[in-house]
Structures are given as structure tokens and as C-alpha cells.
């Protein structure tokens, strides 16, 4: 699919795209063997590596800034220059794809910055036939000293370098500059396009229980202040309610809990400031205190934390107060028993708590291996030399280890062939792989200058580990689908290979009996709203930390991978959830329809058989429970023939994206607060009102039925209640005197009686129930 899919065209509804376009496709790529350094899920890609370490005793007529240039056929690349040195150290690595090599000699030239084209300090030619082949786990190749000669044949010094043929499993691959890239790659650009493994910092919840403050005085001694406490860690700020002291001794109490998110290593301080609300829009700081994290207690259970008193300090520039001795009492601790959620609960990739002391309760139960092969059919994101181009890279997220592939420049079918591994502590988790277009690369190479540009998401793939068979390799091409205000669009396909290996079958089975989250989430649960607020803070903190690494992982990548905006209102998502619920309840509705058909004798043979089975179960009630579970067993065994053969993927039909209206999508991707014109906002508001009216009617009907059921016993309608009580007395005596089997048989046969014995009017119990009163009469 090359363009957008609006819901309506100029001549009526546009038909949805064929399902195969967004379907997962099984592929059979050529995989490398175990011998390729453990890279057995991806194809083996061979490279020529050139590691230029350093030089010594370089000779030139004057001081110069040396650098080394590597030439191979039509490709050339250079190290960074070292100012005014005759013994420079570079330690740069260059990689050339072996399938693109068309020369048999490698030239290494040492020259200076600003030299003429023909001026060289020395050069060396290396025959590629002499280059050794190295495949990990072979030991690293030791660099050697080589003499370089100028054009007169004189020695210009020595260069230490190493040349070898290797694969993408080589440890130098993440640091190598791909010299055969279509665009010029300098040192700054190379730092932004190389592959990298990121470690997400360990996150903790910080609990601050503000108890009370004493000896709080004001510059105006006659003032009775409205005092509150502001707690702050970095950009996270909370306030207690205001309190007025009515005691002779100025004392203020709150006993409020504030939860923050902090990341190791702890760099910030907790700031507690006691403030006075002078006016509605004016607040004055009475005193404050900075508390470093090293003074916090750590706990991972429900043991109580002892309160501590801290002396407050007057802020600079505030009016002086004689004998200022205000202090505040708080309980502060680092909560290690919780799992700090940075992603929605449905997409969790790690469920271990923050405290390492509890990790022994969730030992590794398996190994997850991911092979990122290649992407193909990518949509053009920019134009270079009059043709479409894309600079794509992948990011794989699972647990605390995130993996980013190198950026393949100027290719609509990039080949990555990278493999990564994770220890699995709970297989009911989700692996997320996203493909982005690198917008930091200029049209002619180098980094873009000016205002920062966000990288563009091309698509995401989620794989739930519990849906994978252990030991099996799943190799599929997943569709890359994006959704924006204009509609749904397919951006290409991504080929992945996934394998989940179990190291402990018993531990794997035991996880089904364990709680999904750590025990503290059940001993002291957090509200959904509070948990979502803390999740947004956790995502912001992770984005800040990963953005400081080299190369940085951009904030928009972290937000897309962690689903930072999944809490926003979406009409499309609401419809998708509703239809998911209807699909999940479809078997129950089908059973109800089948029961109605049986009661109305639509199929006489089936109805007679149900009568016989019902009579057998009533006469032998001990067979009811075994029959139910045997039925479930037989149905499950029958469904084994049609079990899923591949993992789930992003489904546009389940997401209700194909039939979503354009305005609904624009509303979903609108900023918060909205920036749309007043007419658009009014139209959306009216639409929500109409939707709310329908929901209101449904809730009102349910409430009316519930109130009628209660009014049968409350004597609101005396005659109806008296009749109901007499009927209950009659049924109690009848069921006591008559055998249970006889009552059950008569009741069942009456419900399933022949249509000739039925009437179209409602039954007596239904008529009685509909006539009971409800509180609709009390509404305005």
C-alpha cells in the first residue's frame, strides 16, 4: 500500500485494503550456522576491517596535524586529525562490505590537514590476499607496525594497524565506520549511526510521608498562616493541602504521602519547602531543606519507616525572623518492592522489583534470541538526487537492555542482520521492535544543523513470549503500519527471526501460579490514575538518561517504545475495545442463541437430545461438574488442530483503523490542550455528547432493573411485595416437600416446552418484574 486509506472517497465509501497486505508472512531466509560467533538467526555478512591504531616518528618539514586515509578501490575514509603531533593515536576502525570490494589492494596514506592533494607523509599498500579471516570467539587480531614511505621512497614513519576479514559478530562492528556508505560519513555522523546497546537505569519509587511541621513562625507575628508543604525531586513537584494551626504552639499536620520516580545513580536531592499561602496567587517560602538520597532508607516489604525531623533554613532575601527554629517531620524511603512501570501493564517486558535483594525470587527461566534481518519495501521519507531515500534503523526493547542497530543510509531495503539476546525471568512479557527513519542525517551527509528534528516512526512489532513454542525459530516478515491524522499507511515490512529457549521447564510452568507483579503491588496497591502519572514520569526519566548516552537514543524513540501517549482519548481505540469485548463474548451470545433455538424447537432432534441429557444430569447430579470439564477438555483438544502457527502482529482490523473516520484520527493525534479551531472543537464536543447520551440510556436501563429487583422486598409497592412474599412462601414449601429432581425436571421441561404450548405474550414473572417501581420518578 503506497498511500493513505480515507474512509470515504468522492463516490462513496472506499473499500478496505485486502487483508493480505497487512498480514504476517512466513519466510525462509538463509541463516548462518552456529560457527558464526553465535549469530545463527541471521545471515552471515562478511566485512573487511581496518583498524588504524596510531603512528610514530612521522617526518615532515614543519609541524602538521596528521591523519590517516584508507583507500579501497573507489571508497576512501579518513581518521580524525591530531593537532601538532608526530606520534598521533587514532584507534579508529573502518569496515568495508566484502560483497562490494572490487580491488585487491588496500592503501593507507598518512597526510596532514591542509596538505595539497599530492603531498603525503607516507603511504602503505596492503595485499588483501594476505588478510587473515577471523570469526569470534577467535582471539582479537593484534595490530602490527608497518613502515610508510613517501613518494621519494624515504621512510616517513611507522603506522600500527590491523587488517582482517570478519563478520557482523566481530566486537569491532559496533565501533566501525562503514566506509562504503553512499554518503560521506564523518566522525560526528558515525557516532549517531552506529549500533549500540543501551542499559536502562534502575528505577525506584521514592515515598515521602509529610507528617507535621512545628515552631513555624511568620514575619508578621499576628498572622495565622495557611501553611502547606511543597515536595520536589528534579521536575516532579507535589503539594500538600493547606493547614491552619489553632494551637498556642504553632504546629501543622498533614500526614500525606507523595510518590516520586528516581533512577540510579541518584543525582538529585529531595527539596522540602514549607510555604504560606498569603493570597490566592501569592505564596511565600517560610523555610526549606535539601535531603540527599544517601540519607533515605530502603525497604522492599511492609515494615514501618521511622519518622525523622529536619531543621528548616530560611531562604535568601526573606525577612529575618528572630530565633527561627522551624522543623519538619517526614518519613522518607526508597520503595524497592515495587516494579516501576515505564510501559503499559499489557506490554510489560520485565516484572522484577527495583531491589536486587528480591531478584532471587525470579531467576532466569529462559533465553530470548532476536535476529533482525532486513526491511524491504520501505516508503520514501526524503529525496536524494531526484529519487526516494530512507535512512532506517531498528530499536529492540526488552527488559533493561535495549538494542539499536546501525543506520543504513540511503536504502529502501536496508540489511541489518544483527542478533541480540536477553535473559527471560517471566515469559508472560512482550518484546517490542520498532523501525525509525533517522532525520539527523543531511541530504548530502553529515548531521543536520539548526532546529532539532524528530525521528519518524515507520512501524512497530510486538511479540508476546508466552505465544512462542520453546526451541522453535519463528522467521516472519511483519508489516510496518503507522497511523496518523490522515489515515493508515503501510510503510514496508520487517523480517525478524525469534527463538525462545527454556532453561528450566519447571520454573517456566511455575510462573503461571505466581503473581504477575511483585507482592508490594498487592499489599499496598497504587491507584490507576496515580500509577499512570508515575509511568509518565518514568518514561521522561528514561528518555533523559538514554539521551545522554553516546550515541543518544532520542526522546521520541523512547516515547514510542514505551507507549507514552496510550492514555489519551481516542474514539477509534474506544470502538476497538468495544468490538474486542463483543468478540470475546461471542461464544456466550452464541450459547444463548442456541439455548433459545432449543427452547423453541428449531431443530427437534437437538431439542430431544437436550431433554435426554438434561434428565440424565438431573437424575445423576454428580455428573454435572465432570461433564462440564470433559466438554472443555474435548473442545480444547479439538482446537489443537487449528492452533496458531505464528505470533500475533499489529492487526488493522482489530485496531479498528481501516474504518476510522478522518476526523476521529485527527482528534486522536491532536495536542493536549487542543489547538484546533472552535468549530472543530464544538463538533467533537457534540459528538461526545451524543455518545454519552447513548451510554447514559444504557446505564439508566441497567439501574432501573436493579432497583426493581430491590423494590420487590422494600414494600414500596405493598401489593407487589405481598404477592412476592406469598410466592416465595409457596415455593419454599413446595421445594421442601417435593424431591429436588422432580422440581428441576419440571422446571427444565417447562422452559423447553414445545412452541404449541407457548404464547407470544411475556410470561407472568416478566410481567410482574416490569411493573415493579424504580427511582426514575425521583429524577428531575
TrEMBL record:
Keywords tagged on the record: Membrane, Repeat, Transmembrane, Transmembrane helix
Subcellular location: Membrane
Residue span(s) of domain C2: 29-146, 185-310, 347-478
Entry protein name: C2 domain-containing protein
Keyword Transmembrane attributed: yes
Listed Gene3D superfamilies: C2 domain
CDD domains: C2B_MCTP_PRT_plant, C2C_MCTP_PRT_plant, C2D_MCTP_PRT_plant
The keyword Transferase belongs to this UniProt entry's keyword annotation: no
Top-level taxon: Eukaryota
Family matches, as Pfam families: C2, PRT_C
Assigned protein family: Belongs to the MCTP family.
Gene Ontology cellular component terms for the protein in this record: membrane
Membrane topology listed for this record: Multi-pass membrane protein
PROSITE patterns, per the entry: C2
Membrane-crossing segments per the record: 608-635, 723-752
InterPro entries: C2_dom (IPR000008), C2_domain_sf (IPR035892), C2B_MCTP_PRT_plant (IPR047257), C2C_MCTP_PRT_plant (IPR047258), C2D_MCTP_PRT_plant (IPR047255), MCTP_C (IPR013583), QUIRKY-like (IPR047259)
